[in-house]
Structure formats: C-alpha cells, structure tokens
Design goal:
The structure holds two protein chains of two kinds.
Chain A: H1 4-22, H2 29-61, H3 67-85, H4 104-135, H5 141-156, H6 159-164, H7 177-212
Helix pairs in contact in A: 2-3, 5-7
Chain B: H1 2-39, E1 49-55, E2 63-69, E3 81-91, H2 92-111, H3 123-131, H4 136-154, H5 157-161, E4 168-177, E5 182-186, E6 203-211, E7 216-218, E8 222-225, H6 237-259, H7 269-284, E9 288-293, H8 300-319, E10 323-327, H9 330-346, E11 358-360, H10 365-379, E12 383-389, H11 393-403, E13 407-412, H12 418-424, E14 427-430, H13 432-442, H14 445-471, H15 477-482
Parallel strand pairs in B: 9-10, 9-12, 10-11, 12-13, 13-14
Antiparallel strand pairs in B: 1-2, 2-5, 3-4, 3-6, 6-7, 6-8
Helix pairs in contact in B: 1-2, 1-4, 2-3, 2-4, 6-14, 7-8, 8-9, 8-13, 10-11
The chains are: A mainly alpha, B alpha/beta.
Chain lengths: 225, 488
C-alpha cells in the first residue's frame, strides 16, 4: 500500500500532464499542479529548519570536532529568524514588508549576507584559472586540440587577436582570428551542444516513462524494479 | 445588505468616472476637431487594405489572427506610415464590466497592502477611499460578490456584441511597427481579466495606419468573427507519434528483458568508477560526500540523482563506510532521507543508518557552497559524487574537491556546467548518462530494456537527421522536413 498509492498517483498525474500538452483546454494544468508542490514546499521549510537546528544542537552537545561553527550557524539562524518574524527595526508597523529599508532583517541581509555571497562567487575567477591550467595542458592529442581551440577563442575576444591577423586579405576573412573564434563557437561547439541536448531530451522522456510506468522506484525508497 | 449597498456605490463611482471619461472624450473630441483642422494640411496616409481575420487554430480559444495588406504609404508612396494601431469594438456592457474589474483590482491591492502606487485624484484613488472604510472580512465578501457580478454580466456579452455598431466603443488593443502585416490578438480566458475575449461572441476589428504626425487612416471594419477553442492541437501531431513510438519501443524492450534476452549496453566509465570509489573510501577510512545539486525534487536530474544515491547508499551500507549528504532543498532532503534509509534497510544494515547522514544546509546558493566546501576541507572525503542540477557553484565545488585530494564523479544535464565538471572531476556523466546511471548501477534487465529503447530512438533520430540534411538540399525535400515541424 505504501508503494502502490504513490505509483498510482505518479501514473495518473504523469499521464494527464502528457495529455495536457496536446489538449489546449488543459494546457495550464501543469502550472496548476505546481501549486500543490508549492503548498508542500511551505511545510518542508519547517522540516529543513528543524533538521538544521537539531543537527547543530547535537554537534554542540556532543562537542564534536569544530562544534564552534555550529554556534555561529545557530546564532545566525535565530537572529535572522527573529529579525524577520518580529520585524525588528521595521520603519512601518507589523504589516509592512519584512525587507523594507531600515529593517534589521534587510540591514543584516545587505551588509553581511550579500558581501559574503559575492566573496564566494568571486572565488570562481581563481578556480577558473586553476581549472583552465589543468585542462589546457597538452597531455595528449585531444587535449592539444582543446588547447588550440581555447587559445583561438581567447585571442578572438581581445583586440590583440584582431591586430594579429589584420594583414590577412578580406577574401580570406575566415582566417581572421575573431572570425575563427565565432566559427568555433557557432559550428563545432554548437553542434556538440545540440547533440547533448537531443540526448538529454531522449533521456528525460525515457526516465519519465520509467517513472510513469513504475519501472523506476528508487525515489520511493524501493529498490525492486 | 451592506454589500449590495456597496455594489451600488461602486457602480455609481464607475458611472461617474465613466461620465467623467465621456466629458473628457467630448473635450478630446473637440480637441480632435481642432487638431483635424491642423491635420488637414497634413497628408493622411492611405489605409491598410484587405483586413481579414480568423479564429486562431489549435488553441484554447479567446484568440484571433488578423492580417492586412500594407498601406500604400508604408515603405513606398509617401512612405509616411510609422505604425499600425489595432482596435477592437466592444459593447457598452464590456465597458461597464471593466469598471467593476477596476474596483476589484483596487480591493485586491488593499487586501495585499500594495496601494502605495495609486495616484491621488484618480478613479482608483476614489475607490480606495471608499473601500478602505471596510474591514478585511467585509472586503473579502465584497470581492466575492463583485466577482459573481462580473461572472453573471459576462454571460450577456455575446448578445450585447450583436448590437454593433450601436452601444459600444472602439478600444485600443495594440500597436505594431510599419511593415507588419499580421497580428495575433491573444485575449484572456479569465473572465475577471480586463483582456477577456469571450468565445462565440461577434468580434469587430479595425487597423489604423498612423504617421509620425499622428495622422491616421482606418481600414474597413472586419467582422463579425468569432473565436472558439479546440480539443486537440494538430500542430503537435509529430510529437504524439514520437511519444507513441518511444513508448512502444520501451515496452517492447522491457518485455524482451523480462523474457531473459541478453541486452548489451555500452559501459560508462563514471558509473564503473562508483564501486571502486566506495572501496577506496572504505580502505582509507574516510567518508563519501554525495551532493544532489541545487535542483528541486521536481527536476528530472534530481530524480535521477535520487536513484543513484539509493545505489550508492546501499554499497556504502554494505562496505560500512560513512556517507554525508548535505542538501539544498528541504523537500529533496526529505526524499533523500527516505531513499538512504531504505537502502540501508535493503543492505541489511538498518542499525548503521544515522539520522544526520542526510541533512539540510541552506537554500542560498553560495552559502550552500561555503558549507559544502567546509565539509570537504574538514572531513577530507575520499570520494565526492556530484549528481543533479548545478549552476555557477559547480566549478567552486569541484575545484575544492580536487584540492582536497578526493576522487570525484559528477553528472549533470546543465550544458553550461558540463565542461567545468569534465575539467575538474575524474569521471563525468554527460547529460543523458546521468539518467541512465541508475539502470547501469542496478543492472536490472527491466531498466536496461528502457535504455536499449533509448539507444534505438537515438539511432532513429540520427538516421532522420541525415535523411533530412540530404533532402533539404532539394526542393521536394521540404515536404519531408515539414513533417517534423512543431508549431506552438
């Protein structure tokens, strides 16, 4: 019963949503179904918050390794929760928006959270450099081709690339480095991407069919097919 | 009683504002006459010709397609046409209903505390002053009564449309730049919306050619035309056949697999590495980190990741290794907990399952990255598995994992992130391989059967693409290519 009911729901909802693609009066059905998802998501937030608090309280009570970080997490959690729930420092009354300018919630968000998030994002620049170094080492033939293609695209994005091949006559303009870079992106690269997209499309249909027909059940915690 | 009184107030307000609008219109009309005197010296553009219209096919109704011949002064002649304005004739009843809709909109704004944008002295402001005197409960009652009123009045729209050209007015619908020869008027099917276009009601349209000076000439009036909905979208017939073909193929191969047919599927390096990676973690006495990505439980990539997590968790339970699953979404966390718990049960080690194996971190992208990176650097997992939907955080996670010396296996269907994973991870499942992974891991004949069907479908697509490329070079090939066109 625990397995059968979800399988029936999956089959019925999946089939109806497939049909809705072909039946115009049902075309907004998918959007309407997402409302159910949103309703469940609201309750799941309590589960998420509860889990976070429980896990970190346990770490502190057991004095696990690095339990000091759990203090920071819990303090941050409760301070933000209180600032939002009780609208501390809100310029208007309790009915005003929680993100109103001047509220404690908004101040902490803008002054602490946003800079920290930006810092994490900025790390990407350094990681791109280190990853590129690893990827572009000409270890074998494929890696060498990758290096050449990357070099052309990098040069094509700079004025130096334009300058380097400016002597090439207009009738041979395909060999201007910026044009080569555009060609690499719009032909071989795009062709490869489209092949992956077609594969993904088929994969999505395949896994959807497996789910709708009840062949794939691991998501229910059932290993038997 | 109070509500009925209020509806009367609304109607009076509406009526007064309508009269006010009429006065303005009269004044504007006078102004127009004056302007006409000035405009007379300006050459009016030739009107657009041959205005035709049909019900938009293969839709839910409430939409019409208009087309016209360009004004002779559009791109030629005086070359003075700047744009085309599309107008629709509506009966007086529709105008009255629109005024009640406006009051509904004001009530909604009061209920949502979003009245700050209402300008003082406007009709909406007058309505706001009236409605703000009522409690929220009373406003809900009023709103419901007004909705019922609009619904009731809408039933008379089709009949009211028959009175053309009496008792109605031309409403501006949209404008299009010069050179445009058609327009799709997609009305709303929601009777509470101001853009509501009733089905099976007589509709009248006209198109004006407008010059930069504002001089305009109207086309002949088109109408009556009617809109209606259809029960089947014929544009999507190729998709119906594709889905049927693929479904039958899947069912066929699943049946073959159940009969015991030996189905060969190409081995995937990334999947075969999973067992080795778990073994390595066991030997090193370090945990395995499984990241489900930033997708929600409704994303196919996340669902595929659940199935892989189930297989990985079972192996982990068998090998008695530690598993860490920090999650981004509370629903994903709940499902993942159930999947891991069941996997431990299947492995005969329910006692080894720990409640905090799968835990929630945060729903903020970079805060999640910071937390997962922290786990990588503190716990030094032997293996990191990234399966699911990833965005800008993919490279930050994978590079940190590489720095921590972990074996890394990744899989995503996000095209933009695949190169980052290929560069930074030891094994990567590209696109569809992520969906196929659970079947490979389980080696179950039924799932392998569906993979076989997928491979055959891919072969069919490649074959059709090659035939299409060849035929597209010839004129007669267009018919073949058009067979696969899917319009909206």
């Amino acid at each position: 019963m625990k397995r059968t009911v979800p399988l029936i729901i999956t089959f019925v909802v999946g089939t109806v949503l497939i049909l809705s693609v072909f039946i115009p009066p049902m075309e907004n059905l998918g959007e309407n179904f997402t409302l159910f998802f949103d309703i469940i998501a609201v309750f799941a937030f309590f589960l998420g918050g509860g889990n976070l608090v429980r896990v970190h309280f346990q770490k502190i009570s057991r004095k696990s390794d690095d339990f000091q970080f759990s203090f920071v997490t819990l303090i941050g959690f409760f301070v933000m929760l209180s600032a939002g729930l009780f609208k501390i420092g809100n310029p208007g009354d309790i009915a005003s928006s929680v993100t109103a300018d001047g509220s404690l919630f908004n101040t902490i968000y803008q002054s602490v959270f946003v800079p920290l998030s930006s810092t994490m994002y900025a790390l990407l620049a350094f990681f791109v450099a280190s990853a590129s170094y690893r990827a572009f080492r000409a270890k074998n033939r494929e890696a060498t081709w990758l290096l050449i293609a990357a070099f052309i695209i990098l040069l094509g994005s700079t004025p130096f690339g334009t300058m380097l091949t400016s002597w090439v006559p207009e009738s041979w303009s395909i060999f201007h480095i910026p044009n080569l870079a555009v060609w690499l992106m719009s032909s071989p690269n795009l062709a490869g991407q489209r092949a992956i997209i077609i594969g993904i499309g088929l994969g999505v249909v395949s896994i959807s069919l497996r789910l709708i027909l009840g062949l794939e059940r691991t998501y229910l915690g059932d290993d038997s097919a | 009683m109070k509500v009925k009184l209020l509806i009367m107030v609304v109607m009076m307000l509406a009526l007064s504002s309508f009269c006010f609008a009429q006065d303005n219109a009269t004044e504007a009309g006078t102004e127009d006459t004056d302007t006409t005197a000035v405009v007379e010296s300006i050459i009016l553009p030739a009107p657009p010709g041959n205005l035709t219209g049909i019900d938009k096919p293969n839709d839910h109704g409430h939409a019409a397609i208009l087309s016209w011949d360009l004004s002779p002064d559009d791109g030629a002649g005086e070359n003075s046409v700047l744009k085309y304005e599309i107008y629709k004739w509506v009966p007086q009843l529709m105008l009255d209903i629109n005024l009640v809709r406006d009051s509904l909109s004001v009530i909604q704004r009061i209920l949502r505390n979003t009245t700050s944008g209402i300008t003082e002295g406007t009709q909406a402001d007058s309505m706001k002053i009236v409605f703000e005197k009522y409690s929220r409960d009373e406003l809900f009652d009023i709103r419901n009564t007004l909705i019922a009123h609009v619904k009731q009045e809408n039933t008379g729209l089709a009949e009211a449309s028959n009175s053309y050209p009496e008792n109605g007015a031309w409403l501006f619908v949209d404008k299009k730049p010069s050179g445009t020869k058609s327009f799709v008027h997609i009305g709303s099917k929601d009777f509470k919306s101001a853009g509501f276009v009733p089905d099976f009601a007589n509709l009248y349209y006209r198109v004006d050619a407008v010059t930069i000076d504002g001089a305009k000439s109207s086309s002949k009036v088109l109408g009556p035309i009617q809109t209606s909905g259809q029960w089947y979208n014929t544009y999507r017939t190729p998709v119906v056949f594709s889905v049927l073909f693929f479904t039958l193929l899947t069912i066929y191969f699943v049946r073959e697999a159940r009969k015991g047919a030996d189905l060969y599927v190409r081995p995937l390096g990334g999947i075969e590495a999973v067992d080795d990676a778990i073994g390595r973690a066991t030997e090193m006495g370090r945990p395995i980190l499984y990241v489900l990505g930033l997708g929600s439980a409704a994303d196919i990539a996340t669902i595929a990741s659940f199935t892989i997590l189930g297989r990985v968790a079972k192996k982990v339970a068998e090998y008695q290794t530690e598993l860490l699953v920090p999650t981004y979404d509370p629903i994903v966390m709940t499902v993942a907990q159930e999947v891991v718990k069941s996997a431990y049960l299947d492995a005969g080690r329910p006692d080894a399952y720990k409640e905090d194996t799968v835990h929630f971190v945060t729903q903020s992208q970079f805060a999640y990255v910071a937390a997962v990176n922290g786990i990588m650097l503190r716990e030094l997992p032997a293996t990191n598995v990234y399966m699911g939907k990833f965005f800008a955080e993919s490279l930050i996670l994978a590079e940190t994992g590489a720095l921590a010396g972990s074996i890394q296996i990744s899989g995503t269907d996000e095209i933009a992130q695949i190169p980052f994973f290929i560069v930074a991870c030891d094994y990567t499942l590209i696109g569809e391989e992520l969906y196929a992974a659970s079947a490979y891991l389980g080696k179950e004949p039924v799932l392998l059967g569906s993979l076989k069907a997928q491979d055959y479908a891919k072969a069919a697509i490649i074959l059709l693409a090659v035939i299409g490329v060849v035929l597209a070079q010839f004129e007669f090939g267009a018919a073949f290519v058009n067979l696969f066109e899917v319009a909206n």
